[in-house]
Amino acid sequence: MWLDALRVRATMRPLTFREAERDDFDAMGRLWRTAFNAPQRSIDTIAERIRPHRILVATDGDRLVATAQGFPLRQWFGGRPVPTVGIASVATDPLYRGTGAGSDIMERILIRSRDEGHALATLYPATVRFYRQLGFELGGTYTRYRVAIPALPAGPAVELADVPDDGGPIAASYARLAERESGLMEGVDDDWWPWRVLGRWSTDAHGAVMTGEEIPDGYTAWSQESLPNKWGYRISCTHLVAHTRDAALALLAFFRRFKGVGREVVWQGPPVEPFVTLLPEDSTTTLSNFRSMSRILDVPAAFESRGYPD
């Protein structure tokens, strides 16, 4: 492998960088399968989930050798949304790693994102050093919590409703949370809620429920995941949001109804998680912590979007 890589570096032509096309999907799937060990079902649904204009690709002749994707986001600070690009799908063919292909495609997608009006860029790094060299620094924590379903409260009994396929009022409920909690992000495009949050592409059992207010006091979206070498399944939440104690208890009690075969509930939250205070002592464990990295793309735009005067 190392000798092949040396031959590539010695003979490679200048790479071509361009926006992805639908004809690239098969090659992107093969690259992402190698780079991320992505599950086959996510590769099989690329044509449904992926919008080519978000992705830059690098090619060497007919060979696709690198990708980078930019999602338009809003990241909230001090009650104000800041236009942000979420960087994902940064992948390089193993034979082209160490040639500068990864850095080159990242620099191009950051320049494009700034030109499109994004003030910040954020991502979850596979390696800190690579992104630090591109101006990123650690900026947040993605913490996942786990609790056994039998430990969940039994009530109160609150009537819940299914979330509409497009998300409906839960976007406003999330914005209500984001306005008071700095650092939260949400997608701008119309596929964010149905695909990224509600998991409409997933082949696993999944669902979403909300409380009955016009802007719900609480909602959750989840899927059921198999547990390796164990009987039963895990409920994995993409969102678990509550603005009141009663709403939080109602959502936790809802998941208790899965205790026949369901084994545990997993969700992400802040480093100090209010939901934990509603659960028995020592019943919750931290499953993982994943640090995000961010950088400023446009200093004046970042200040302006935060509401600072000229």
Give a nutshell description of this structure.
This protein has ten helices and 13 strands.
Main sheet properties: 13 strands, mixed
Shape: globular
| Name of the CATH first level of the largest domain | Alpha Beta
Percent strand equals 25-35%
Q: Considering the protein shown, what is the CATH homologous superfamily of the largest domain? A: Gcn5-related N-acetyltransferase (GNAT)
Q: Give a count of the beta strands, DSSP E runs of length 2 or more.
A: 13
Number of distinct helices:
10
Q: Supply the CATH architecture of the largest domain.
A: 3-Layer(aba) Sandwich
How big is the Rg?
21 Å
- State the helicity in percent bands: 25-40%
Helix-strand pattern = HEHHHEEEHEHEEHEHEEEHEEH
Detailed description of the structure:
This protein folds into 2 domains: 2-141 and 293-305, 3-Layer(aba) Sandwich (Aminopeptidase); 153-278, Gcn5-related N-acetyltransferase (GNAT) (Aminopeptidase), CATH 3.40.630.30. The radius of gyration is 21 Å and the shape is globular. By secondary structure, the protein is α+β, with helices and mostly antiparallel strands. The model is unreliable at 1-11 (pLDDT under 50). It is built from 10 helices and 13 strands. Strands 1, 2, 3, 4, 5, 6, 7, 8, 9, 10, 11, 12 and 13 form a 13-stranded mixed beta sheet that branches.
